[in-house]
Specification:
heterodimer, A: seven-stranded mixed sheet, 11 strands, B: mainly beta, about 55% strand
Chain lengths: ~110, ~110
């Protein structure tokens, strides 16, 4: 089983719809992240959480919200999806006790907003 | 904004050849990491080099870091078709919480 699991793997939605992407991890890590990837732009940080009660905005948080329901679960919501939110979304985790911020990634969710 | 910039953007080589990818960054860092991404999949951590290290090896991978030039290189020796992937550098400087910032990546194709 994957250590970092994202659902769904693919999602097609329409402009204005609210959608949620989910992430769960079995690594026991305290830190969780949401990134989006656009072709040629690398990964950009949307939100991150250092523990259940800690939520922080990343570089591109506008139009997104998150919820850390438990140490193992971190969900990303698009309140009203728009076409330029079409991207590949990744959840990642890290262990604050580890040497350096080494990230472990899920397999990604390809989101298309029509 | 991207802290790291990879060069070249794309690289095509024959199996058995060495592949070298470069990363430049803008501000001081604590460490620099390289990740690999197979097409459409999640990134996988390859190697981490600290700011006080100059070179690090892991199997066929060799990473160098020159903090005076704010640059790093990733060398893959004796490449294989299975090395075909995108490679990203990530740095942890210049932001609250030392979050990792990724470059745009180098797409490597190794032809059999």
């Amino acid at each position: 089983d994957a250590d970092v699991t994202q659902t769904p793997r693919n999602r097609i939605t329409k402009t204005g719809k609210r959608i949620m992407l989910e992430c769960s991890q079995t690594k026991g890590h305290d830190r969780m992240y949401w990134y989006r990837q656009d072709p040629g732009l690398g990964l950009r940080l949307i939100y991150y959480s250092f523990d259940v009660k800690d939520i922080n905005k990343g570089e591109i948080s506008d139009g997104y919200s998150v919820s850390r329901q438990a140490q193992a679960k971190f969900s990303l919501s698009l309140e009203s999806a728009i076409p330029n939110q079409t991207a590949l979304y990744f959840c990642a985790t890290s262990d604050s006790r580890g040497p350096g911020e080494k990230l472990f990634f899920g397999s990604g969710t390809q989101l298309s907003v029509l | 904004s991207q802290q790291g910039e990879e060069d070249p953007q794309a690289l095509s080589i024959q199996e058995g050849e060495n592949a070298t990818m470069n990363c430049s960054y803008k501000t001081s860092i604590n460490n620099l990491q390289w990740y690999r991404q197979n097409s459409g999949r999640g990134l996988v951590h390859l190697i981490l080099i600290r700011s006080n290290e100059r070179e690090k090896h892991s199997g066929r991978l060799r990473v160098t870091l020159d903090t005076s030039k704010k640059s790093s290189s990733l060398l893959i020796t004796a490449s294989r078709a299975a090395d075909t992937a995108s490679y990203f550098c990530a740095t942890d400087g210049n932001n609250a919480g030392n979050m990792l910032t990724f470059g745009g990546g180098t797409r490597l194709m190794v032809k059999p």
